[in-house]
């Protein structure tokens, strides 16, 4: 899972990137190259399972964060090299997290509503260009061949064009399975899940009208002060907890960003446990047991027989796996079982 951190220049993108990854990159300098770092997904449930099973190692789920170069307003419209570079980086990730400046910081009065609207327009223009180019090619193809290779594509692209011309993101459309498959190769920017990060001053609150606008556009929202979070990240856990309490911060930025990312991508966690390893895995909500098995290893999906399943709360209440089995809290589930958040799975398979 890759999350691209985007925004216009000098919004605090790289500061946030440093906070959630520990990368320690210089900030406030702009740049043209993206930065990538892998961050652990903190999960107290995995810590509790580790205490129960005492494995040789504990493996958290991970998220890849990509700090994409700051975007120059108007870049997509003029088709310059900066636009191409920015957009290509954005197309490669699974979701986008737009950081919006809600502080002065020597860069002038903030305009969070304007930044949100401007970025939405830039992304829509980029997608609209792809749609119009494709419709033109489809028209030529029909003229030359008498038909198009896939008759579902022209009406889909026309529907996309109408959506974008009316300043609405493609993610708002209710796509059927054929349209999802057909559109996947185009890596449309406005089809990607969006997280809006409102980076505000210490002690301030995020502007409610921007939060409402972001939610109306189908985006997850996070409000934080990246500068304070940067100070917090340098403290040891005990001091950090005290700092959080003193500042009235409910949870650190990493936790907020992970929760928003999982929400945007419709993800949940399941676990595998044992003496050798306790591990957290991410899978989309609604995934059936063989798909979850495939996240662990393709052989497990290919040879799936059954999933020995225990709910996390049931295991913790029982105190051990043996006790959970004795209390009939361990079930054997088949191929149609939809994995639930917190499930502990042991896959039975044969290849």
List the helices and strands and how they pair.
Elements: E1 2-6, H1 13-21, E2 35-40, H2 44-53, E3 57-59, E4 62-67, H3 75-78, H4 81-91, E5 95-102, H5 112-145, H6 153-165, H7 177-183, E6 194-200, H8 208-216, E7 220-224, H9 226-233, H10 237-247, H11 253-264, E8 267-272, E9 277-284, H12 289-296, H13 298-302, E10 304-310, H14 312-318, H15 321-326, E11 330-333, E12 344-349
Parallel strand pairs: 1-4, 1-5, 3-9, 5-6, 6-7
Antiparallel strand pairs: 2-4, 8-9, 10-11, 10-12
List keywords for this structure.
single chain, 351 residues, alpha/beta, Rossmann fold, DNA polymerase, domain 1, Ubiquitin-like (UB roll), 3 domains, 3-stranded mixed beta sheet
What does this structure look like?
With 351 residues, this protein is α/β, with parallel strands linked by helices. It has three domains: 2-38 and 62-111 and 191-264, P-loop containing nucleotide triphosphate hydrolases (Rossmann fold), CATH 3.40.50; 118-190, DNA polymerase, domain 1; 286-349, Beta-grasp domain (Ubiquitin-like (UB roll)), CATH 3.10.20.30. The chain has 15 helices and twelve strands. It has helices at residues 13-21, 44-53, 75-78, 81-91, 112-145, 153-165, 177-183, 208-216, 226-233, 237-247, 253-264, 289-296, 298-302, 312-318, 321-326, and strands at 2-6, 35-40, 57-59, 62-67, 95-102, 194-200, 220-224, 267-272, 277-284, 304-310, 330-333, 344-349. The strands form three sheets. The chain has a six-stranded mixed beta sheet, with helices on both faces. Helix 1 packs parallel to helix 9. It is flat, with a radius of gyration of 23 Å. The two termini are 28 Å apart.
